[in-house]
Amino acid sequence: MDWFLSDETASVVPLLAAFDAAAREGHITHAADRLGVPQSSVSRRIKSLEQALGVPLFQQMGRGVTLTTAGHELHQRTEAAIRELDDAITTVRSNADPDGGVVRFGFPLTLGPVSVPSLLAEFHRSAPRIRLHLVQSHGEALAQMVREGRLDLAVMIPPPADLPVTVLGSQRLLLHVANTHRLAHRERVDLDELTDEHFIASPRTYHVRKELERHCADAGFDPYIAFEISEFETIRALVARGLGIALLPRSETAVSGLTTVRVTGIDDRAIGLAIGTRHPSPAVHRLRTYITARSARLRDPGDDE
C-alpha cells in the first residue's frame, strides 16, 4: 500500500523548524536569529503549530521560554528527524556544487589565536567558494553541538569517546606562574607542592578545570580557586600580575611576566577532529582532509622541548 502524509502532518512540517529552534535556544529572539527570520515570524509559526496540534508547546520562563510536557514529547520525537532532513538537504545541495557549500566548524578556545585561524585562512585560499560558519567554545559545548548536528566538524581537546574522531596531535598542560613566583625558576614541580597556592581557573564545565580538580584530588587536596573566568588569555594576564597560578595549555602568543613549568604526573591531552554527519558533504570532507593532512600545525609548541 502506498503511504502518504496525513493532512495534519503536511500542515505542521513547515512549522517544525521554528519549533525546533525555539526548543533548543529556549528563547524566541535567539531562535529567530538562528533561523535568520524576524522574531514575529517564529512566534506566528509556533502559534500555528500549537493551534494545529491543539496543545500549548511552550510556557514563559523569565525572558525566555521552556517546553511544556507536550512540547517535550514532540521535541524528543522530532529532533532526530529534523537533523536527518537537514543533513539530507545539505548533502544533496553540496553534491550539486562540490566546490561550494557550507561547513559548520568548531574549535577550542586554546587554539584560537594562531594555529586554527592560519589553517582556515590557507584553506579559504584553496577553496574560496566554501563558506565556513565558525564556533569557538570549550570542549563539552563543542561536543554537544556536534552530537546535535549543529556542527559538521570540530577540533576538541580531549575528544569525546562517543563521536568518530581523528587524532591530530597532543597538548600539554603546564603550570603557569608569574616570573616573580617562588616556582618560576623550576623546570618541574609536583602537585603536592601547590596545596597552599591560590588558583585562577576556568568554569567547572571546562575540561581544563576538570583536569585541574582531578589531578589535585589524586595529589590529596582540593585546589583553592581564587578567581574563575572563561577567557584563557585573561587567566594568564591575572597570573602574570601575581594574583594566583593556573594549570593551562601553553599560549600560542607570548605573554610577558609569565613562566610555564612542567608538572609531574600530568599526561598530554589528545587533540581530536570529530565529525558529526554520517554522510559528510564534499565541502565537509574537503575541510576534514585538509586539516588532517596538516595536523602537525596543531602540535603543542612545547613538544620540541
Automatic annotation (TrEMBL):
User: Which PROSITE patterns does the entry mention?
Assistant: HTH_LYSR
Keywords on record? Activator, DNA-binding, Transcription, Transcription regulation
**In what residue span(s) does the HTH lysR-type domain sit?**
15-68
Q: Which top-level group of life is the source organism from?
A: Bacteria
Keyword Zinc applies: no
* UniProt cross-references to InterPro entries, sorted A to Z: LysR_HTH_N (IPR000847), LysR_subst-bd (IPR005119), WH-like_DNA-bd_sf (IPR036388), WH_DNA-bd_sf (IPR036390)
* One family name in Pfam for this protein: HTH_1
Record's family?
Belongs to the LysR transcriptional regulatory family.
- Spell out the protein name for this chain: LysR family transcriptional regulator
Organism listed in the record: Rhodococcus kronopolitis
